[in-house]
Write a structure and sequence with these properties.
By secondary structure, the chain is of the alpha/beta class. It has a single domain, classed as Rossmann fold (3-Layer(aba) Sandwich), CATH 3.40.50.300. The protein is built from five helices and seven strands. Strands 1-3-4-2-5-6-7 form a seven-stranded mixed beta sheet, sandwiched between helices. It is globular and about 45 Å long.
Length: 193
C-alpha cells in the first residue's frame, strides 16, 4: 500500500473520546515492549509518528492514527507491565476490552508477540478472547530479524501450535521483512464490508 499521509489524530482515555467518523479501524495489541510503536512507524514509513520508548507501558491511552484519510491504525495500551499499579493495569484492560468488544468500525485486530520468546500467559489469554468472540485477527511475530532462519522457523512452528486458530506473520521493523505480507492482510480486511 502506498502511504500518502499518516497523522496522529487523538488519544482516547474513555469511550467518549473515540473517533466518530465511521472510518474502518485496524487495532494493534500486544504486551508492553513488544514493538507496537516501531511496527506502526515501519508500516507507515515514518520515524516517530508513534512514540517509541525504552520504558515499557508508556502507551496508556488508545491512540488513533489516520492513514491516507481512509482508515485508522489504532494503538491500544500494552499489557503485562509489572511496574504499574494493579488499578491502572485493570483500567487499561477494561478500556481495551470495551474497545475490542464494542467497536463496530474495527475490521482487524493485530496481536503482536515477540518472535524470540514463548508467548506469555497474557498473550494466550488475549488470543483465546479474540478466538472465542470470533474477532477477525492475525498474529504478528515481531523482531524476527533477531533470530537465524532455522531458529525463527522452529519458534514459529511452536507458536502455531499454541495459536492453532490464528494466522501468523513474522515481521521485522528493522529490515522490513514481512511488511508486504502484513499490508496484504490489512488491505484484504479493509475491503470487507
Amino acid at each position: 500500500m502506498k502511504i500518502l499521509s499518516a497523522e496522529f489524530v487523538k488519544s482516547a482515555f474513555n469511550k467518549s473520546h473515540w473517533t466518530d467518523d465511521g472510518l474502518p479501524e485496524i487495532a494493534f495489541l500486544g504486551r508492553s515492549n513488544v514493538g507496537k510503536s516501531s511496527l506502526l512507524n515501519s508500516l507507515l514509513g515514518r520515524r516517530s509518528l508513534a512514540r517509541t520508548s525504552n520504558t515499557p507501558g508508556r502507551t496508556q491511552s488508545i491512540n488513533f492514527f489516520l492513514v491516507n484519510g481512509e482508515f485508522y491504525f489504532v494503538d491500544l495500551p500494552g499489557y503485562g507491565f509489572a511496574r504499574v499499579s494493579k488499578t491502572m493495569r485493570a483500567g487499561w484492560g477494561e478500556m481495551a476490552e470495551d474497545y475490542l468488544s464494542q467497536r463496530e468500525e474495527l475490521k482487524l485486530s493485530i496481536q503482536l508477540i515477540d518472535s524470540r520468546h514463548e508467548p506469555t500467559k497474557l498473550d494466550l489469554q488475549l488470543n483465546e478472547w479474540l478466538v472465542f468472540h470470533e474477532k477477525p485477527h492475525i498474529i504478528v511475530a515481531t523482531k524476527s530479524d533477531k533470530l537465524g532462519k532455522n531458529a525463527l522457523q522452529k519458534q514459529l512452528a511452536g507458536t502455531k501450535k499454541l495459536f492453532p486458530h490464528s494466522k501468523i506473520v513474522p515481521i521485522s521493523s528493522v529490515t522490513g521483512a514481512g511488511k508486504e505480507a502484513l499490508w496484504t492482510e490489512i488491505t484484504s480486511f479493509l475491503k470487507k464490508k
